[in-house]
Amino acid sequence: MLKIAYHPSYVHPLPEGHRFPMIKYELIRGQLLHEGIVQEVNFFEPAPADFDLITSAHEPEYCRQLLHMQLTPAMVRRIGFPLSAGLVDRELRIVRGTIEGCHFAMAHGVAFNVAGGTHHAGSNWGEGFCLLNDQAVAAAYLLGRGICRRILIVDLDVHQGNGTAEIFRDENRVYTFSMHGERNFPFRKERSDRDVGLPDGVGDDVYLDLLTHHLTMVFSHIQPDFVFYQAGVDVLETDRLGKLALTKAGCLRRDELVFHLCRAANAPVQVSMGGGYSVHVRDIVDAHCHTFKAAIRIFE
Question: In its keyword annotation, does this UniProt entry include Hydrolase (predicted)?
């Protein structure tokens, strides 16, 4: 059975000025239920992750400062959200949801977190609305418990997964792949195991040709026993921040390619939804819901 991590805190602790486009998390859940794609039983509400879990990928001092809301003003500005107890709880629940999703994925092929994909958080910093790196913590969890031996992180958000790359730069059991806008945030990039930087304006055909070429080689070379997929939809032509030009159909084909490669490799995949900043929230929700639909078709 498909399992999807969702909690009301994914939206409601956020300050008023930051509710859009974060309201998408609530709308994705509602749209999936409205269309009959999933039922209430498919959702689970994660508890907060504890200190031992988050320190598997983040430095203890940073985690202590975060949990006690003692981050410096400069770090809070770097994160972009005013710090609050509710916001920290939200982030801890997102991390736990991704970790639990790994177990569901191993049982059923694929699992989702409606939020997550917080890939700008590094080992000792938060950045770009990311306080903790949910998929990095989950990957470290799988390795630390001997559950997996070779993990692939596929990051297709329009922004490079700089935090993920930094956390695993010396970990050869995790292969980080990021295909992103070269001239987009973050302007100081970290080095992933494979980075594919794209010029502004790239559309469906070029994007999909490049992704097929690179990701097919990566799967063949790495042969992962688990995959994390950061499925940001800020690659859309309608996105205010993305600078690329994918259509919804092209974004769907991107998702289908990733899921087909995972299925062919017999590699379970945990999906976190990543970014999306289109002017109309309907475009964001539609593209994210297409990701769910593709997974259900391919893994059913």
Answer: yes
Establish how many alpha carbons lie within 13 A of residue 300's alpha carbon, considering only the half-sphere containing its beta carbon. Answer: 8
Cα–Cα nearest to 137, from 150, 154, 119: 119
What's the CATH code of the domain at 23? 3.40.800.20
Please give the share of the chain, as a percent, with pLDDT higher than 70.
97
Q: How far apart are CA 173 and CA 140, in angstroms?
A: 10
Phi, psi values for residue 271, rounded to 5°: -115, 125
Q: In what order do the strands lie in the sheet with 226-230?
A: 43-44, 4-5, 110-113, 269-272, 226-230, 151-155, 174-181, 194-198
47-101 tens-digit pLDDT: 999 999 999 999 999 999 999 999 999 999 999 988 999 999 999 999 999 999 9
Range of the domain at 179: 4-299
- Name the residue with tokens 């730069």: 169
The pLDDT confidence band at residue 14, using thresholds 50, 70 and 90, is low
Structure tokens at 269: 């995949």
b/e code 147-164 from CB counts within 10 Å (16+ = b): ebeebbbbbbbbbbbbbb
Q: Contact 108/298 with Cβ under 8 angstroms? A: no
Number of domains in the chain: 1
Reported confidence tier of residue 170, pLDDT bands at 50, 70, 90: very high
pTM: 0.97
Q: Look up 108 and say whether it is catalytic.
A: no
Q: How far apart are CA 173 and CA 170, in angstroms?
A: 9
Angle, alpha carbons 287-153-5 (nearest 5°): 55
Phi, psi of 256 (to 5 degrees): -60, -40
What DSSP character marks residue 46? Answer: P
- DSSP SS3 for 108: helix
Residue 163 has pLDDT above 90, yes or no: yes
